[in-house]
Amino acid sequence: MQQPPNQPPFDQPGQEPPFHPHSPQGYQQPPMQQFPQAQPLKKKRRRWLLITIIAAVVIFGCIIFSTGFHDIGKATPAALSTSEPTHQAAPTNTPASTAPPAPPSVQYPPKTEADLHGLAVHGDANAIHEFHSETVGLAGVCPQSKRLVIVDSGVKGQQLAEDVLAYFYAQRLENPCGSIVFAYYTQAEANDPNGGAYTAGRVMLNVTDSSGSLNTDPNASNLKRTITLDTGGFDANQEYVVSY
C-alpha cells in the first residue's frame, strides 16, 4: 500500500499517523523521542557535593578543637606553667669594685732583699741621669759594670734610695760578677781632681762564691750577694748593708 504523496513518513516527529480502521493495530502512538537530561540537575549535584565537603571539614575541625580544649582543661598547673617559657632577666655578674693592689711595704732603712725591691718599686728610674759607663773587674771573664749618674740636689735620704735602686734594677746591674753606681749632684763633682768621690750616694754589689772569695765565674751557683746602699756622700755615714 503506498503512502499518499506530500506526506512525511509515519515515524518522523511531529506527525500523527493516519487512522486506519481496518489495520489490525488500529491507531498506534509513535515512539517518544529521547531528549538529553536538563543541565540544572548537574549543578544541583555539584552544589550538594560542595556542601557535603564543607560540612565534613567543619565537623572535623570542631572535633579537633574540642579534643584539644579538653586536654588543656586536664593539664596540671605545672604543665601549664611550662607551656609558655618565662623570660627572666639573666643575672649580670657585676664584679665587685676592688681596689688596686697595694704596693709592697717600704722598709727603710732596708734590711732584706725584699726591702730593697720594695724601695725600688716606689722609686723613679728616670730621675737618675747617667753620664758615664765602663766595665771594670775581670774583663772577658767576669766583668763588672761601673756607672756614674747625677741626681737633683733636692733628692736625699729615702727618696734617693728609692730612685737609685729603681735605676739599679732597671739596668739589670744585679749580676753574678758585681757592679757599682756612684751618684753625684753635678758632673763637675765627679771630675774634681781633688776629690772625685761620690757626693749624693752609692749602690755597690759584691758577689762571693761558696769559699767567701770574690766570684769570677758568671755561671757559678750558691753565690752570696751583698748590697751596700749609701744615701749620702762618702763621709756621711749613711751606709746600709744587706746580704742575701
Please describe the structure with a list of short key phrases separated by commas or semicolons:
244 residues; 29% helix; 18% strand; rod-shaped
Layout of helices and strands, plus pairs?
Blueprint: H1 40-74, H2 77-83, H3 113-122, E1 129-138, E2 142-150, H4 157-170, E3 179-184, H5 187-190, E4 201-208, E5 224-230, E6 239-243
Parallel strand pairs: 2-3
Antiparallel strand pairs: 1-2, 3-4, 4-5, 5-6
Helix pairs in contact: 3-4
What CATH calls the topology of the domain at 113-243 is Diaminopimelate Epimerase, Chain A, domain 1
Architecture of the domain at 113-243, according to CATH?
Roll
Q: Helix count? A: 5
Query: Average pLDDT across residues?
Result: 79
Principal-axis shape equals rod-shaped
Low-confidence runs (pLDDT<50, min 5 residues)? 75-83
Measured between the Cα atoms of the first and last residue, the distance is 162 Å
Q: Order of helices and strands, N to C?
A: HHHEEHEHEEE
Number of strands: 6
Can you give the helix content as a percent range?
A: 25-40%
Strand order of the largest sheet: 1-2-3-4-5-6
Alpha-beta content class: alpha+beta
Strand fraction equals 15-25%
Taking the sheet with the most strands, its summary is:
6 strands, mixed
Radius of gyration: 61 Å
CATH classification class of the domain at 113-243: Alpha Beta
